[in-house]
Design brief:
It is a single chain. The protein is an alpha/beta fold. It has a single domain (8-132, 186-270), classed as 3-Layer(aba) Sandwich (Rossmann fold). The chain has helices spanning 44-50, 74-87, 100-111, 128-134, 137-143, 152-163, 165-169, 171-183, 188-197, 227-236, 252-255, 257-268; strands spanning 8-14, 17-24, 29-33, 55-59, 93-98, 116-122, 214-219, 240-245, 272-273, 276-277. Helix 3 (100-111) links the parallel strand 5 (93-98) and strand 6 (116-122). The termini are far apart.
């Protein structure tokens, strides 16, 4: 096992890529996998609520600052995530993935069951194809065009529609999200390389093989990934548990971070039975 990295940002070379990594907080480790074109900073509202109880390992989605290849397959991204977990000194931890990061989290749980203790799947699905078929067509069209980042006022307007939920309803939440996105924009090449990496990925045939207790957390008003995808995940994963956030859009990790943190912490918190730790291969009792 390698020594723990000190808290803060560093750069780790994995899979031929240099990836910016941030370690924050103290407690049981939680590896956090961001979505399409996402940077560490988008975790801030959720990380602020979890860092007091957990050691958070976060990193920019591979290709964020510029792609070295034409696509990043989900399998390669999950291998990178596992390498980052081990480089930061962890041989077993919990994993949380959002959107594209949720696909990566599923693949990592399948390939490395000894590494992943518990799994949290947030605003995600079993594969891009099913997401496209169940999404709001306009929202999906906006997602597929990262050129919008080059025109901030237009991007802000389109983002509100695309993300739905509180970000669509609240100009303040939309402005807060857009400010972070504009400060650290994904490269257009890297964005497309990540998107192309989802082509052909389908987890539905093997979800029944996942051994980890899994929380599936989803907003009921997500225009990009319909809540039916979350129901499918929870139904197919043997130890799956579904929780929904009423009226939540695709950005519940950001604009309803408090509710997400409460659900995540309740699921991951170790329980005691008769003075002994709860069996980690069983789903936690729910409050």
């Amino acid at each position: 096992m390698t020594a723990h990295l000190s808290a803060g940002d560093t750069t780790i070379g994995v899979g031929g890529e240099k990836v910016r990594v941030r370690v924050r907080g103290s407690g049981p480790p939680l590896l956090m996998l961001m979505g399409l074109g996402g940077s560490i900073e988008l975790w801030e509202p959720l990380a602020d609520r979890l860092a007091g109880h957990r050691r958070l390992i976060m990193f920019d989605t591979p290709g964020f600052g510029g792609a070295s290849r034409w696509r990043y397959p989900v399998g390669e991204m999950s291998a990178m995530a596992g390498a980052i977990a081990r480089e930061t000194g962890h041989e077993r931890l919990d994993v949380l993935g959002v959107s594209l990061g949720g696909l990566v989290a599923q693949d990592l749980a399948r390939r490395a069951p000894d590494l992943v203790r518990r799994l949290v799947l947030l605003s995600t699905c079993t594969g891009a194809c099913r997401a496209v078929l169940t999404a709001d067509p306009l929202a999906m069209a906006i997602l597929g065009n990262p050129v919008r980042y080059l025109v901030p006022p237009v991007n802000k307007m389109l983002t509100r529609y695309m993300m739905g939920g509180r970000t669509r309803r609240s100009p303040q939440d939309a402005t807060r999200y857009d400010t972070i996105r504009q400060q650290r924009r994904p490269s257009i090449r890297g964005y497309y390389a990540q998107m192309l990496g989802t082509v052909g990925f389908v987890s539905r045939p093997w979800l029944h093989t996942l051994v980890q207790p899994t929380l599936v957390l989803h907003g009921t008003a997500d225009p990009l990934i319909d809540v039916s995808n979350a129901r499918l995940l929870a139904d197919r994963i043997p130890h799956g548990w579904l929780e929904t956030i009423d009226g939540g859009g695709h950005l519940i990790l950001f604009d309803q971070a408090g509710e997400c943190a409460t659900a995540v912490e309740a699921f991951l918190r170790p329980l005691q039975r008769g003075g002994r730790p709860e069996d980690e291969n069983r789903p936690a009792d729910r409050p």
